[in-house]
Every structure is written in structure tokens, then in C-alpha cells.
Amino acid sequence: MSLNEIGARNVQAFVDSTRAKHAFPKQIDDITWVDAIDADGEKVIYSYSLTVTDQAEASRIVEELRRQLPSSVCNQPDMHRVAADGVTFEYRYRMRNGPSYDPITITPKDCRL
Fold first, then answer.
1. Which residue of 7, 43, 60, 88 is 20 to 30 Å from 79, comparing CA positions?
2. In sequence order, what are the residues at sequence separation of 6 or more whose Cβ sits closer than 8 angstroms to the Cβ of residue 24?
3. What DSSP designation does 78 have?
4. What is the CATH number of the domain that holds 73?
5. What is the DSSP secondary structure assignment for residue 68, as one 8-state letter?
6. Angstrom distances, CA of residue 111 to CA of 30, 32, 34
7. What's the domain count of the chain?
8. Quick one: the chain helix, strand, coil %, rounded to 5?
9. Dihedral (C-alpha) 72, 105, 78, 5: value to the nearest 10 degrees?
């Protein structure tokens, strides 16, 4: 079995485990919903929607997330373990009634692996 196959299997197992623990969509704070979690090869994809109506505010929030997410993800034991297997995390944000933003991608390298 190739490393890519092992990574893809771990991604699917991680996604399946997360789906078993949580129902989606799920509201996580006043303005943020996790809409879905998916697997794509060696990538875990989280899809989020923001309920804010002001595009400038949504852009500010997403830029702040770009700064904070790498350390937040890398410091979570389950996610760090999966990243150690070569898995990448991708966070996709969109306004509920507006545009989508460029994804935030966190690689094993970002976790110093």
C-alpha cells in the first residue's frame, strides 16, 4: 500500500469519526456554522458559513482566521496526529448570502512535521 493510500484511508477515517460525533450543519458561535466535513484524497475539507451581513466584516474575520488557524489546528492532538500522517486541512469560508473566500490550507509543514 502506498503512502498516498495510507493517507487517504486516514483522512476518510478521521472524517467518518468526526461525522459520527457531530451532526452537520452545526452552529459553533453567534456567526459561524460548520456546514460539512469531507475527504478528498489526503485532504480534510471543512466548509463553514458566516451569518454576518457586512462583507467587510466577513473579510476581516476570514483574514483573522488565516492568522490563527494554523497554530490552533496544529495544537489539537487529534489533528496533529492526522497531520503527522501527511494529511492537509482545508477550511472553506463563505458568507451565508454572499461570496466565498479563498480556502485556508494547513499542511503538515505548517505543523512543523
1. 60
2. 34, 35, 36, 37
3. H
4. 3.30.300.250
5. H
6. 29, 25, 23
7. 1
8. 45, 25, 25
9. -170
pTM for the predicted model, two decimal places: 0.88
SS3 40: strand
| Axis-axis angle for helices 77-84, 55-74 (nearest 10) | 70
**65 neighbors 52 (Cβ within 8 angstroms):** no
Cell of 28: 459553533
Q: What is the pLDDT of residues 5-64, one digit of tens each?
A: 556 677 888 899 889 999 999 999 999 999 999 999 889 999 999 999 999 999 999 999
Distance CA 78, CA 23 (A): 19
What DSSP string describes 13-38? Answer: HHHHHHHHH--SSEE-SSSEEEEEEE
Residue 66 belongs to what domain range? Answer: 3-111
